[in-house]
Design a protein that fits this description.
By secondary structure, the protein is mostly beta strands. It is 9% helix and 40% strand. A hairpin with a 4-residue loop joins strand 1 and strand 2 (11-13).
Length: 78
């Protein structure tokens, strides 16, 4: 599970400022890297994109329950 993502301008950390979940939503070699930031009830706070590779993603060592979320999962949530 992602526990923190940050660069020189923005920081999102699980357990801080109502952030409950951070998931990789779309990461591509030549595109914007987008992360889904949600509260503890999995309601979207923001989709944050990074257009550069100067950001850091911190993980814990626990496996993600039911694997990574997909676009199809998002459609079912809403």
């Amino acid at each position: 599970m992602i526990t923190k993502i940050y660069d020189n301008y923005y920081t999102y950390e699980v357990g801080v400022k109502n952030v409950g979940y951070i998931t990789e939503w779309s990461v591509g070699k030549d595109t914007v890297d987008i992360f889904h930031i949600a509260d503890e009830n999995n309601k979207i706070i923001v989709f944050h994109g990074y257009t550069h590779k100067d950001y850091v993603v911190e993980h814990d060592d626990e496996p993600i329950e039911d694997g990574q979320i997909t676009l199809f999962d998002l459609k079912e949530i809403n």
